[in-house]
Amino acid sequence: MGKRLRQARQTAGLTMEQLSESSGVSVRAISDLERGHIRAPQPRTLTALSVALGMTAAEHERLAGDARALRMHTAGARPRLGEPPRAVTDFVGRASELDLVRRVASAVGRPGPVPIVLVHGEPGIGKTALAVRSAELLRDGFPDGCLHLDLRGVDPEPPDAGEVAGLLLRALAVNPRRIAAGVGERCSQLRAILRDRRCLLVLDNVADEAQLRPLLPGAGPGLVLVTSRRMLGGLEGVLRIALAPFAPAESAALLRAIAGQAADPAAAGDVAALARLCGHLPLALRIAGTRLANRPAWTVGTLVARLADADRRLANLHTGDTGVAAAFALSHAQLSREGRALFRRLAHVPEAGFTAPLAGVLAGYDPDDASDRLDELVELGLLQHEGADRYRFHDLIRLFARERLVVEEPAGSRAATRERMVRWLAAS
């Protein structure tokens, strides 16, 4: 295949640089193809090269046939790495966020650093769904590949940058024997390759800045989409997209797309009530819709009645191996001991919103220390800023905090904390 491509380029009287300019395929990728270092090129890459070389349909088919034969030969020997996961077929909403990502992608290839887009937000808000949907819409503009990798940021021991770089290098068809051994050298090798390739890189579920920073390319024709529960405030030059819960109309649209019962116009009132009980959280809505779809005898009102009991709501927002409480628990496990204590005691607050001084009363801190601990909760997506000095729980996360309070603190301690809060509120 490489020999056939090189002969076609030479016959056309083109240098690699000229072919790159006319096809949109990077010089590095063309060189690797001609030397046989890319063993399974993307079909759209070959199409772009064929058009730029003026190949006939028969010539293109011979080149594509070579590539198919290589894929079949290597499929059993080496698994394909980095292929994006299956996108949801009922994706709704996020129009402004998708438009923003498209605008960033339209600037790819201009002088300057590779654009980095960070999608962040609370657990279950739909970060991965947005990133995968964006990649699906944009991948044709990245002929050198669209790679997705889960960095397992909420695992007890996420992979470090060196391990991630090794996986990405393998996904970019670098021979394992040529991958550098040291973390720094390996990350540098990755950045050097991405400098010359028009790749779309989706780094999903990032743990922190230390895991991500060494992987990011400098200049080049690519785009990097990052998702994380954290805001990763230590990163510079990053476009941050903070996801919020769905608008009511979007919540209703998702429920209708999943469950036939929700599509009945007569159920519109119950659909709106169900969306409110789910806090317009995409994960909760998807679970609720799936439960309805799997139980044709249920009406939307049946599930509304089940979720009306706040003490059982999280238990009912669970299906198969997916649950809202389980998603929250992954972030909760990353909190410090002091952060967990503050998180659960905030469940005493009678409203969803509160100030740092009240949080300090609940946890026994002065306001400055309380602000630091509240920032820890915000960083992990368990709490949201609301104005300069106010914070707010998502309704479902507040229920999770209440569950943790009952499980982790004895009744006497809970009563004492509540009494302290009541006295402070009365004196304020």
TrEMBL record:
InterPro entries: AAA_16, Cro/C1-type_HTH, HTH_77, Lambda_DNA-bd_dom_sf, P-loop_NTPase
PANTHER family for this protein: HTH-TYPE TRANSCRIPTIONAL REGULATOR RV0890C-RELATED (PTHR47691:SF3), REGULATOR-RELATED (PTHR47691)
Record CDD domains: HTH_XRE
Entry-linked PROSITE patterns: HTH_CROC1
Lineage start: Bacteria, Bacillati, Actinomycetota, Actinomycetes, Micromonosporales
HTH cro/C1-type domain ranges (all copies): 5-60
One function term, GO molecular function aspect: DNA binding
Name this protein carries in UniProt: Putative AfsR-family transcriptional regulator
Highest taxon of the lineage: Bacteria
Region named Disordered: 1-21
Polar residues compositional bias, start-end: 8-21
